[in-house]
TrEMBL record, chain A:
Organism whose genome encodes this protein: Primorskyibacter flagellatus
GO terms assigned for molecular function: ATP binding; ATP hydrolysis activity
Every ABC transporter domain range: 2-248
The entry's keywords: ATP-binding, Nucleotide-binding
Name of the encoding gene: SufC
UniProt cross-references to SMART domains, sorted A to Z: AAA
Family: Belongs to the ABC transporter superfamily. Ycf16 family.
Keyword Transferase included in the entry's annotation: no
UniProt-listed InterPro entries: AAA+_ATPase, ABC_transporter-like_ATP-bd, ABC_transporter-like_CS, FeS-cluster_ATPase_SufC, P-loop_NTPase
Protein name: ABC transporter ATP-binding protein
Pfam families in alphabetical order: ABC_tran (PF00005)
Coiled coil: none
Classification via NCBIfam families: sufC
From TrEMBL, chain B:
Protein name from the UniProt record: Fe-S cluster assembly protein SufD
UniProt-listed GO biological process terms: iron-sulfur cluster assembly
Species in which this protein is naturally found: Primorskyibacter flagellatus
InterPro entries for the chain: Fe-S_cluster_assembly_SufBD (IPR055346), SUF_FeS_clus_asmbl_SufBD_core (IPR000825), SUF_FeS_clus_asmbl_SufBD_sf (IPR037284)
Domain of life: Bacteria
Pfam families, per the entry: SUFBD_core
Endpoints of the signal sequence: none
Coiled coil: none
Length: 251, 432
């Protein structure tokens, strides 16, 4: 589904290479996890895949079901089914959360040649999804992420994912800042979306999230590359021993 | 005419040329004294000049020239603003009252006269206000265009409100001539406990000079929502002079889209304790556009609140100007003053010039002011796009969000919706 080959990325206005030949493939129906030390390039990978500016791809490719992602505008990637739950969700003063969700959903539907959802249907649909994540009506009315606590912002990311129902979901440290109960809510939200047609790439530093969202494959990323790939046991190894051994072995 | 020696030659010439073009002050019964003293003020002050400190950001030439520069008429297809609002409409075409197009000025608790209609009378209730609030607003800063208006106004409404008006009075300013040079002067008196909502819309004239004096008695409320006409080449200098009594409320919002040159001055005096004055403006400018909000708020009573919220969206070389001052007098304790002016520059050609000022003589006050100028927030834009919102739509959404703080100053939801609809229309037209 998501196929990344030898991806090389540098900063646009700095001579700094961040991704240095990254290979990764996420199959439909699977959950892949990426772990790796701070600064190894995990967020950069997620931004480059979703179309953020400021980066220059100097080599390699990234495709979603065969379609060249790197050629598409950010909004086209979203309409093609790619979704990124941000490590740091952005606050948008003056834009209501509900308006934001509806504009996004209808824009994607329009781009795919589907009917827009009516205001009443949409309201019902969102309320149901929000309830599962314990996001109340008040939070839906407020401006996007403004004044939300760290955990509320993360839950709001998952709400967007639940509403937009993307095929390929990238979660960048969605667990950071979540209390134990919120971690459970968020994981339930993710698990509810797991199905044969959907792929997940879960970036995390902690095993705990992976107790709830059981990964099929775990990758270790360091210095802009995937240096080791294994099963769920790899995450446990990192949890107990840290990265030192793995990185030494990779060299 | 003898001009004071301290005026520059240039200033004297400009003033004399403009007064010559206007001819003698109209014969005017009860308002004669006010008009002749206003004329003295004009001669003493001289009309604004580009070198005046108060006009350093905005070249006043177009507003002071002897004759108005022609302005092409602008055909607008969409339904007029406020069409869905139940209101008493008074229509002026090129500054001339159009009785046939207007509603009967019948509204319980509200008496409406027109300036031209009562010009011949020897006495009128407006006598104690006409040119009076304007004259009070001449210090510490001279506003000669307003004095010129008092002297030479040919039309306007005189509204005396004695109760709570059940619907808004709506002044509709249409245009039919490319060269009309209109001078309108309104006087509004709101008695204790009474309330009025006033709506204004339309381009009015190729060049408009408008003054509105509003006297708000204790416990009274005045709400004002205005949409200045979309004609690209029109020019306007407008002044609002408001005086607020105890526990009274003044709230004014202005939407400006287009217009080559617009200077909106608002001069507010809080003279009774616990009064509230809010002035807000949202302006969207594209290309050959200069929009200037100049506000002067004087706190002269205890525990009053004032808010100034001005937002400007500028593109294609448009210019936005804001000059805002809060003056807190010695005894105006517990003053709560807030002032924000912000511009969203959609390209590098546009500019925003701001001069926010505070002058405070009381010690127990909370005043804040801020002025910013910036481009669209790239992070917010990417966030929206990453959710599938196309760049154009996302930019519009962020633009409306930027203007929201000003639009929220309109209390009435239906009126706010009218304004938002206009803004959306403006954005949409610029996207296609
Ligand atoms: N816009 C930028 N300007 C300068 N440096 C950048 C920029 N973006 C990324 N970097 C650098 O690239 C490297 C990778 O950053 P990235 O955020 O992708 O790491 P990460 O793996 O997500 O780290 P963390 O686990 O701390 O979230 C870091 O050294 C970071 O400082
Ligand atoms: Mg990161």
């Amino acid at each position: 589904m998501l196929k990344i080959e030898n991806l090389q990325v540098k900063l646009e206005d700095e001579d700094k290479q961040i991704l240095k030949g990254l290979d990764l493939e996420v199959e439909a129906g699977k959950v892949h996890a990426i772990m790796g030390p701070n600064g190894s390039g995990k967020s950069t990978l997620s931004y480059v895949l979703s179309g953020k500016g400021g980066y220059e791809v100097t080599g390699g490719s990234a495709t979603l079901d065969g379609e060249d992602l790197l050629e598409l505008e950010a909004e086209e990637r979203a309409a093609a089914g790619l979704f990124l739950a941000f490590q740091y969700p952005v606050e948008i003063p003056g834009v209501g959360n509900m308006t934001f969700l509806r504009t996004a959903l209808n824009a994607q539907r329009k781009a795919r040649g589907e009917e827009e959802m009516s205001a009443t249907d949409f309201l019902k649909f969102v309320r149901e999804k929000a309830k599962a994540l314990q996001i109340d009506a008040e939070m839906l009315k407020r401006p996007v992420n403004v004044g939300f606590s760290g955990g509320e912002k993360k839950r709001n990311e998952i709400l967007q994912m639940a509403v937009l129902q993307p095929r390929m979901c990238i979660l960048d440290e969605t667990d950071s800042g979540l209390d134990v109960d919120a971690m459970k809510l968020v994981s339930d939200g993710v698990n509810a979306l797991r199905d044969a047609g959907r792929g997940f790439l879960v970036i995390t530093h902690y095993q705990r999230l992976l107790d709830h969202i059981k990964p099929d494959v775990v990758h270790i990323m360091a210095d802009g590359r995937i240096v080791k790939t294994g099963g769920p046991e790899l995450a446990l190894e990192v949890e107990t021993n840290g990265y030192a051994d793995i990185l030494a072995e990779a060299k | 005419m003898a001009a004071p020696a301290q005026l520059t030659r240039q200033k004297q010439d400009v003033t004399a040329a403009r007064l010559d073009a206007l001819g003698p002050v109209p014969a005017s019964g009860w308002s004669s004294a006010a008009r002749s003293s206003a004329l003295d003020r004009v001669v003493q002050q001289g009309l604004p000049h580009a070198r005046d400190e108060y006009w350093k950001f905005t070249r006043p030439g177009g507003l002071t020239d002897a004759m108005a520069a022609p302005a092409a008429l602008f055909r607008v297809e969409d339904t007029p603003i406020f069409d869905r609002i139940d209101r008493v409409r008074l229509v002026f075409v090129d500054g001339v009252f159009d009785a046939a197009a207007s509603d009967d000025p019948e509204l319980a608790g509200v008496r409406i006269d027109r300036l031209s209609q009562v010009a011949g009378a020897d006495i009128h209730w407006a006598q104690g206000l006409y040119g009076v609030l304007e004259a009070r607003g001449q210090s510490p800063v001279a506003r000669p265009l307003a004095a010129l208006n008092t002297a030479h106004a040919t039309e306007g409404v005189l509204i005396h409100v004695t109760g709570k008006a059940q619907k808004p009075v709506s002044l509709v300013y249409e245009r039919s001539s490319e060269t009309a040079d209109a001078i309108l002067h309104h006087v509004i008196r709101i008695d204790a406990g009474a309330e009025l909502t006033l709506l204004e819309n339309g381009p009015a004239a190729a060049r408009l000079n408008k003054v509105m004096e509003v006297d708000i008695a204790d416990g009274a409320a005045f709400h004002h929502v205005r949409a200045q006409g979309r004609d690209h080449e029109r020019q306007a200098a407008t002044h609002i002079f408001a005086r607020l009594g105890r526990e009274s409320v003044f709230k004014s919002f202005t939407l400006t889209a287009n217009g080559r040159l617009t200077r909106n001055e608002c001069v507010i005096e809080l003279t009774g304790d616990d009064a509230v004055a809010h002035v807000a403006g949202a302006c969207v400018g594209d290309g050959d556009f200069l929009h200037d909000d100049t506000v002067f708020i004087t706190h002269d009573a205890v525990n009053c609140e004032s808010r100034q919220v001005f937002k400007k969206v500028l593109r294609n070389g448009a210019t936005g100007v804001f000059q805002g001052k809060i003056l807190v007098k010695k005894d105006a304790q517990k003053t709560d003053g807030y002032q924000i002016s912000q511009s969203l520059l959609l390209d590098g050609d546009s500019q925003f010039l701001a001069k926010p000022e505070l002058e405070i003589y009381a010690d127990d006050v909370a005043c804040s002011h801020g002025s910013t100028s910036g481009a669209i927030d790239e992070d917010a834009l990417f966030y929206l796009r990453s959710r599938g919102v196309p760049e154009g739509t996302a930019t519009d959404l962020l633009t409306l969000a930027f203007l929201a703080e000003a639009v929220q100053e309109i209390e009435d939801e239906a009126l706010a919706t009218e304004i938002v609809d206009r803004l959306e229309g403006w954005l949409e037209r610029r996207r296609t």
